[in-house]
Amino acid sequence: MKSYGVIGHPIAHSLSPLMHNAAFKVLGLEATYGAFDVEPASLRRSLEVFKSKGFAGLNITIPLKEDMLALAEEVTEEARAIGAVNTVLFRDGKVFGFNTDAFGISKSLEEFRGELAARNMLVLGAGGSARAVVYTLLNDFSPNELIVASRTVKRADELASRFVPSEASKIRTLDLQDPAFADTFKSCTLIVNCTPVGMSPNVEASPLGDPALIHSKQIVMDLIYTPLKTTLLAAADKVGARTISGVEMLLQQGARSFEIWTERQMPVDQIRPVLLRALEDRGKGDPNS
Fold first, then answer.
1. Do 43 and 143 share a domain, yes or no?
2. d(Cα 261, Cα 264) in Å, to the nearest integer?
3. Among residues 160, 103, 75, which one has the least CA distance to residue 126?
4. pLDDT tens, residue by residue, 182-235
5. Which one of 92, 171, 181, 284 is CB 3.0 to 4.6 Å from 160, fit for a cystine?
6. Are residues 122 and 213 in the same domain?
7. Mean local confidence (pLDDT), 113-126
8. How far apart are CA 221 and CA 236, in angstroms?
9. Last residue of a domain, one of 229, 244, 259
10. pLDDT tens digit string along 136-194?
11. Does residue 57 sit in the same domain as residue 155?
């Protein structure tokens, strides 16, 4: 029986155990996946404990992803560029670090790849998830211009500086309060919300001051998956824009972790409804979800 898990703080409401255990069951794999609360100060020690107990792999979530980058013995180029490790593989006594967020973002946007080429794209936020989104859009979707908008322009500038010299020419930063924001927003084909604004319990909030900025030719992606339909996505739906919920990225990045560990494809079409049901139950206040 192989053991896997997710570590972070807090961790109680993680959907990763549900997702991976369901996939193990569908494929008939003898494996188990749990959730473990680990604070940053105890990360190094905890990693040694998981190794000593024979764990095969871990997912790493907030607030540990950046710290794990320094602890993994071998790290993929992708993880280093993004500045975070969210997947660990224990093999031959070593700790291998990966970042599967970029894969999750890319797969979530796959059906729109053709129409996104050489278009303007807007990323809302400048935190860790925004770094993964910017990396993916620059490397996989060839934007004409990529705009990173944040309430703290200094953070957006710091994010953009990570991608010099080759990619930075395609990045522009902008204050969310800048008068030019409205026209910039309207010029973009893809909008990706990487902020926590609109996440449960503050479900009425939106990262957009004026939802009327959204138009029908846009594709709007929200990395939030609780609730399934954020205020931002509801506003996009209302005007006929295409929308992508954060649950798709959750599923796809998890599928990539699963493949790294097991060398098997996660049956995503069978796992997606499992995740959606759990999220719908949470929305109804089911204490067991």
1. no
2. 8
3. 160
4. 999 999 999 999 999 999 999 999 999 899 999 999 999 999 999 999 999 999
5. 171
6. yes
7. 95
8. 10
9. 244
10. 999 999 899 999 999 999 999 999 999 864 555 589 999 999 999 999 999 999 999 99
11. no
Q: Are residues 203 and 238 in the same domain?
A: yes
From 2, 51, 65, 238, active-site residue: 65
Q: Is 263 left (phi over 0), alpha (psi -120 to 50) or beta?
A: left
Q: Is residue 288 part of a domain?
A: no
- Amino acid 278 reads A
Question: Are 213 and 261 within 8 A, CB to CB?
Answer: no
Contact, 122 vs 172, CB < 8 A?
Answer: no
DSSP secondary structure string for all residues of 134-177: HHHHHHHS--SEEEEEESSHHHHHHHHHTTTTTTGGGEEEEETT
**178 and 138 inside one domain:** yes
225: domain range? Answer: 103-244
The total of other beta-carbon atoms located within 10 Å of residue 181's CB is 19
Residue 101's SS3 state is helix
Q: Which two tokens stand for residue 213?
A: 């900025």
Do 18 and 51 reside in the same domain of the chain? yes
Is 65 labeled as catalytic in the residue annotation? yes
